[in-house]
Write a structure and sequence with these properties.
The structure holds 2 protein chains of 2 kinds. Chain A is of the alpha+beta class. Chain A has helices at about 5-10, 65-75, 80-85, 90-95, 105-125, 130-160; strands spanning about 25-30, 35-45, 50-60. Chain B is an alpha/beta fold. In chain B, β5, α6 and β6 (about 170-175) form a beta-alpha-beta unit. In chain B, α2 (about 40-60) packs parallel to α7 (about 240-275). The chains are: A alpha+beta, B alpha/beta. The complex binds pyridoxal-5'-phosphate (PLP) and FE2/S2 (inorganic) cluster (FES).
């Protein structure tokens, strides 16, 4: 079902764990859906004074595809300028892994989204202008999170539980 | 790689050597069509009828009450749909929320056809209260279907009580006994219909049976040559039926020995696994089939745990959404109220004839490391209650 590249990244995940002294973190997903991804970035400057992702890591709760895409996106983004990193698409992440089973494509969406959210947080923290594409993606992710939250609450209701807190991502 | 330790017997089992041996002649020499008049046909028919008789004797029922099918999915469909179609006025079915999809999805399909269905919820251990079944039965209920033992949890149901209650109310009672068959005693007197499948008891895939109590009318699903007394047309799978009979014979005659042995392995499993921090047993410690145990682990997801263990030479399964084609978590784990944060982190371990206590010890050695390695890069920590 999975390509060799997926299995390689799953077995030997790159840049895993929490980053010390990170500049920003992007959080996406919902435990009720079985996938949560947190991407940590550290922003530095390269020789030309461009802002680059000097270090990156992730913590992921999810299937092998989710872990492999986290690992892949971290490899793809490391050393890139923020502008370049914003342009990393879900499709590129999946292609980098030699493809994902159709049902698992949402896992690659999560990885790129989490990276985007981290960059978004970094720029907003520093009072910087948010590029249009980034803002749009951020809005889309926020909307999805709201949908997931609803699903979570309805699952609790189905189970007859009502006091499981509010369900923010963390 | 060393030998892979197979702990997924509730998915399927290896065919026992004796079973293979018993089947082989019916592929090689005695390959006749059981309906043919010549010597090949007679040989095939007599093997099939001997098999039917032997199974019936084990179950304490009559030979003509056994209908061979292509497996339990078909047997369950025949029981539910066959009973629905043959009852003109009664339009209501009672079943549970934790049935195998072969019952659950058949019930949902009947709903689409205009029948009404009550899905009775189990308690947090997966046990269904007979009283709740009784309350669900209506004047127009044509069938109650409650599985004997759950394929994900192992939890067993009070079949005798439910059967007695159905009889009092004049309603047919079906049980999906796929996982219980050959593992625990079956209350045959209490049921009208019972499904079983060969490949769960070290027999071949693609063959099973439906016990149909004399006098119970079922509309057939398959129309054709009128095989199986008109209840299931289609050239009989004679080698498979011979294999099913042999597998039944072995599992029933070994049951007194195997059940306590598997139960002891299960106890050891529960004791060992629940020592892993942030773990829990899903299901019931005592009211259970001897060969299935289900666990959940905080902060990790089931599919990745299964693949991690696969890497280490352990074959098990999960009820995680990420492993299912529709990305929905196990309806069984949801129905028994496994907390959302743990419903995706489940692991089902199921043992069989060739499982040894060394296998279990090896599994218990490997498991904590696999869990820890995934937790090392999970955003959640064990013991954080609100991890969603
Ligand atoms: C409880 C239960 N019912 C029905 C089935 C379906 O049986 P079969 O594979 O013979 O169609 C299975 C196994 O998959 C099962 O565990
Ligand atoms: S995390 Fe659920 S399918 Fe990948």
């Amino acid at each position: 079902m999975y390509t060799d590249q997926v299995m390689d990244h799953f077995r030997n995940p790159r840049n895993k764990g929490k980053l010390e002294n990170y500049s920003a973190v992007g959080k996406v997903g919902q435990v009720v859906c079985g996938d949560v991804m947190w991407v940590y970035i550290k922003v530095g400057e390269d020789d030309q004074g461009r802002e680059v992702i000097s270090d990156i890591s992730w913590e992921t709760y999810g299937c092998a595809a989710a872990i492999a895409t986290s690992s892949m996106v971290s490899e793809m983004a490391k050393g890139k300028s923020l502008d370049e990193a914003i342009d990393i698409t879900n499709r590129e992440v999946a292609e980098g892994l030699g493809g994902l089973p159709p049902v698992k494509m949402h896992c690659s969406a999560l990885a790129a989204d989490a990276l985007n959210e981290a960059i978004y947080e970094y720029l907003s923290q520093n009072g910087r202008e948010i590029p249009e594409v980034l803002e749009q993606r951020h809005q889309r992710v926020a909307k999805q999170m709201a949908v997931l939250e609803k699903r979570y609450q309805s699952l609790l209701q189905e189970q007859g539980v009502s006091d499981h807190g509010t369900g923010s991502s963390g | 790689m060393d030998r892979v330790i197979y702990l997924d017997h509730s998915a399927t089992t290896p065919v026992a050597p004796e079973v293979l041996e018993a089947m082989a002649p019916y592929h090689r020499e005695h390959y006749g069509n059981a309906s043919s008049l010549h010597v090949y046909g007679r040989k095939a028919r007599s093997a099939m009828e001997e098999s039917r008789g032997a199974i019936a004797e084990r179950l304490g029922v009559r030979a003509e009450e056994i209908v061979f099918t292509s497996g339990a999915t078909e047997a369950n469909n025949l029981a539910l749909v066959g009973a629905a179609y043959s009852s003109a006025e009664r339009r209501h079915l009672v079943t549970t929320a934790i049935e195998h999809h072969a019952v659950l999805h058949t019930a949902r399909w009947l709903e689409k056809l205009g029948y009404s269905v009550t899905f009775v919820s189990p308690d947090s251990s997966g046990r269904v209260d007979p009283q709740a079944i009784g309350e669900a039965v209506q004047d127009d209920t044509f069938l109650v279907s409650v599985m004997a033992g759950n394929n994900e949890l192992g939890t067993t149901q009070p079949i005798e009580e439910i059967g007695g209650l159905c009889r009092e109310r004049g309603v047919l009672f079906h049980t999906d006994a796929v996982q219980a068959f050959g593992k625990v005693p079956l209350a045959m007197d209490s049921v009208d219909l019972l499904s079983a499948s060969a490949h769960k008891l070290h027999g071949p895939k693609g063959v099973g049976l439906l016990f149909v109590r004399s006098g119970v009318r079922l509309t057939p699903l398959f129309h054709g040559g009128g095989h199986e007394g008109g209840r299931r047309s289609g050239t009989e799978n004679v080698p498979g039926i011979v294999g099913l009979a042999k597998a039944t014979k072995i599992s029933f005659s070994e049951q007194d020995e195997s059940a306590p042995r598997l139960r002891a392995l299960r106890e050891r499993l529960i004791e060992g696994v629940t020592r892993v921090p942030g773990s829990r047993l899903n299901g019931h410690r005592e009211n259970s089939l001897p060969h299935i145990a289900n666990f959940s682990f905080e902060a990790i997801e089931g599919e990745s745990l299964v693949l991690k263990l696969d890497e280490e030479g352990i074959a098990v399964s999960t009820g995680s959404a990420c492993s299912s084609p529709d990305l929905e978590p196990s309806h069984v784990l949801v129905a028994i109220g496994v907390p959302p944060a743990m419903v995706h982190g489940s692991l089902r371990v199921s043992t069989g004839r060739e499982t040894t206590s060394e296998d279990i010890e090896r599994f218990l050695e490997i498991l904590p490391r696999a869990v820890e390695s995934l937790r090392a890069y999970s955003p959640f920590r064990v013991g954080e209650s609100d991890v969603h």
